[in-house]
Amino acid sequence: MTMHRPPVTRLAFVASDRPEAQEARDQLAARYGDLAESDAQVVVALGGDGFMLETLHRNLVYDRPIYGMNQGSVGFLMNEYSEDDLLERINTAERAWIYPLTMVATDRTGARYEALAINEVSLLRQTRQTAKLRITIDGKVRMDELVCDGVLVSTPAGSTAYNLSAHGPIIPLDARVLALTPISAFRPRRWKGALLPHTSRVKVDVIEAEKRPVSAVADNFEVRDIESVEITENRNLKLSMLFDAGRSLEERVLAEQFSN
Q1: Which candidate in 17, 26, 34, 49 is catalytic?
Q2: What are the CB-based long-range contacts (under 8 Å, 24+) for 52-56?
Q3: pLDDT by residue (tens digit) across 7-19?
Q4: Contact (CB, 8 A) for 8 and 41
Q5: Whole-angstrom distance, CA of residue 49 vs CA of residue 79
């Protein structure tokens, strides 16, 4: 028996601090009504990809999808902006499910920090000194020493973001893999990274952490002067994003692989 979701009629509008996004929020709220995020069926986010990530993080505790409309600079995760037929667009939209990464970082004092990342977890050198990193996958050391500017672990949803800029692979959403991508690798110079099963437990230890300080960033949460980071996919959390019919996130990821 096919189960049909009730039609969406209750919306919450949130916007970045860009003036055009704030103006769009006011116009849409006046036209369609505006509820608190906790009372809405769908949250409409107005801004760029960065604001979409903020909205997803803020709604981790709610079981409701996010529909984004571009009022920013990039907008890969956003739909085109239009005031017209918004309820129809949302009710016919295609849904994408996103599983975040959990980052547990330990700094040089022994303090531990935990954060979630929807796009990627990045380790980045803090000074002119290159970073020296040891990479362990599921308890087995796979690389004794990577000399680089950094390394990142990307979700499929984040594979077209920083990961792609670092020459990492674009990953289809349903591939059930993670990308491990070096950032400006110096030694081994020709190492391009690896594709890992989504169940992998990735640990990165910082070699000479005091001399060569490294920070760890989970989306927009940063920990400095780390000694080690553990990264896993969190299958207990599932985020939902809505995309206009025919413009699903899967289609965008596929099309990106054929773009110039």
Answers
A1: 49
A2: 52/77, 52/78, 52/241, 53/77, 53/118, 53/119, 53/219, 53/220, 54/220, 55/14, 56/98, 56/118, 56/239, 56/241
A3: 999 999 999 999 9
A4: yes
A5: 11
The yes-or-no answer on residue 149 being catalytic is no
pTM for the predicted model, two decimal places:
0.86
Could you tell me the domains of the chain? 11-98+238-256 (3.40.50.10330), 101-233 (2.60.200.30)
Contact 25, 46 (CB under 8 A): yes
- Higher per-residue pLDDT: 236 or 255: 236
Token pair of 143 as six digits:
């690389």
Q: What is the DSSP letter of 169?
A: P
Angstrom CA distances, 78 to 46, 49, 147, 193, stand at 8, 7, 36, 28
Cis peptide before 65 (omega within 30 of 0): no
